[in-house]
Recover the amino acids of this structure.
């Protein structure tokens, strides 16, 4: 005899530590199984796209810091690239390399946070978090000595960067890169073969490659499913076409694969950084751009491979100092779309891990 | 073998047991703050001409400048106020100022009990700037020398 139970609703969030912010997952359960999942977003909505229409192009840069507040440099870079495309501004070579250096440091900092919080959700408690924050802290110190802020950096400017690096940056960056491979080996010894992580994340939250492509997922979520797609290779920007690196891909698209892809991207970022620091040319870091920049009427879309996926800015100019339309294609939000298909059939703890493996930041989901 | 991965991780943790901690105890030990750090905004009355470029550059509109012309053509700064309730310390005003009258730096431990105390008029800003100059040998955050209090009277 089979028992039939009444489906009931479990709300995960909006106030729940594993939602990485204020995100609500409305799960319809049949016993222990999830039969439906509904995502409720908007608790952190600050109407950033509308706010941007009342401000000049330069004044919008600090607002992009607050999108994905764990990788502010990448957001600055994507937005400034869109404005430069709109206004036809060329960035000097040194500026391009400084942007790559900062974006890759930001990727390490972001992935450290992503891996650490993912490990926490799997039940591996504070040790990985503390260890990865140690390296993240050094990266934030590098940001602070360069641009004056740690999280909301506001560093990249239209036509270059706000400050050239100080003299103490290079030794500190080299020292950090020298110890990074050893640190990554430590993380791997701690986490990669850990039975808790293996048991919790293997074959959980599988995302099929065709579904990943159909829902236009990007970043480690897409690459974890085995799709080789990285905008740094597919559509090179800044100085990435002169740097050598590999794109790690997963095999079956479960949570463990996404975790492995992030782990390997740490190594690749270190590799990129070592080359970029060696190749950093002399010369000016930026060109002068008027405070109230008036790009010609038109539209532009620029995209970068942010740590979380494809981050794009779509700008429409009507010739005034303010953007007419400012649209953000944020990776966190779009990577959430296949979540329903990933969690149906799982239990609540597995759904939490699946959500953690996507690595969302609610500042970017709701903007 | 089951448990080997955890044992390996434990061994790694054990190795870290005997090293020095990376953290510092804040109120007793204070971390080195780099000179570029945007800890606060310092406004120097003696450098400011009242052109209000900073107010135009501010994304939040948290700077208020009100001026009236003097007879010699310069501007008298009737009001200069920064609303630190709104300020997000982006530093765009610092970059915009042609006279380096507003500079990033100063105290980072200036929390207040009353929210509205974060609205600082020109007297409060000058007190903060003078306190900074006194403790930094009359040198601006950008490294240039500032006039000492006696010299300032002589300039006027």
């Amino acid at each position: 005899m089979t028992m039939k139970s009444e489906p009931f609703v479990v709300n995960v969030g909006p106030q729940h530590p594993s939602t990485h912010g204020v995100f609500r997952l409305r799960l319809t359960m049949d016993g222990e199984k999830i039969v439906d999942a509904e995502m409720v977003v908007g608790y952190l909505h600050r109407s950033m796209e509308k706010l941007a229409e009342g401000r000049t192009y330069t004044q919008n840069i600090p607002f992009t810091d607050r999108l994905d507040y764990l990788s502010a440099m990448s957001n600055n870079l994507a937005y400034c690239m869109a404005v430069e495309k709109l206004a036809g501004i060329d960035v000097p070579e040194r500026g391009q390399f400084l942007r790559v250096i900062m974006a890759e440091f930001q990727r390490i900092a972001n992935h450290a946070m992503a891996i650490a919080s993912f490990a926490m959700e799997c039940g591996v408690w504070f040790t990985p978090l503390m260890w990865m924050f140690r390296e993240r802290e050094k990266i934030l110190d590098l940001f602070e000595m360069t641009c004056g802020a740690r999280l909301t950096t506001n560093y990249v400017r239209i036509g270059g960067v706000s400050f050239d690096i100080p003299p103490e940056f290079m030794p500190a960056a080299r020292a950090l890169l020298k110890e990074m491979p050893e640190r990554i080996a430590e993380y791997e010894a701690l986490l990669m073969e850990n039975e808790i992580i293996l048991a919790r994340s293997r074959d959980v939250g599988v995302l099929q490659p065709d579904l990943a492509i159909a829902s236009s997922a990007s970043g480690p979520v897409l690459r974890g499913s085995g799709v080789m797609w990285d905008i740094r290779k597919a559509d090179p920007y800044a100085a990435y076409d002169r740097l050598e690196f590999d794109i790690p891909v997963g095999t079956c698209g479960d949570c463990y694969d996404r975790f492995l892809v992030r782990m390997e991207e740490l190594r690749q970022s270190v590799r990129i950084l070592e080359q970029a620091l060696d190749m950093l040319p002399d010369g000016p870091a930026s060109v002068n751009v008027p405070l109230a920049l008036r790009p010609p009427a038109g539209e532009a879309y620029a995209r970068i491979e942010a740590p979380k996926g494809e981050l794009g800015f779509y700008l429409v100019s009507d010739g005034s100092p303010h953007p007419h339309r400012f649209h953000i294609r944020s990776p966190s939000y779009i990577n959430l779309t296949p979540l329903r298909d990933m969690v149906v059939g799982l239990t609540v703890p597995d759904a939490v891990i699946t959500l953690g493996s996507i690595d969302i930041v609610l500042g970017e989901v709701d903007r | 073998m089951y448990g080997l991965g955890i044992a390996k991780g434990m061994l790694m943790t054990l190795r870290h047991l005997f090293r020095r901690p990376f953290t510092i105890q804040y109120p007793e030990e204070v971390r080195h703050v780099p000179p570029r750090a945007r800890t606060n905004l310092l406004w120097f009355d003696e450098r400011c001409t009242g052109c209000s470029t900073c107010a135009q550059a501010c994304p939040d509109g948290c700077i208020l400048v009100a001026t009236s012309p003097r007879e010699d053509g310069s501007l008298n700064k009737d009001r200069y106020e920064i609303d630190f309730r709104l300020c997000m310390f982006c530093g765009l005003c610092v970059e915009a100022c042609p006279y380096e009258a507003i500079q990033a730096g100063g105290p980072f431990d200036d929390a207040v009990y009353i929210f509205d105390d974060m609205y600082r008029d020109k007297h409060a800003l000058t007190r903060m700037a003078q306190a900074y100059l006194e403790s930094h040998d009359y040198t601006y955050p950008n490294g240039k020398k500032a006039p000492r209090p006696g010299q300032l009277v002589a300039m006027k």
Observations:
- Residues 93-122 of chain A form the longest helix (30 residues).
- The first strand of chain A starts at residue 8 and ends at 12.
- Chain A has a mean pLDDT of 87.
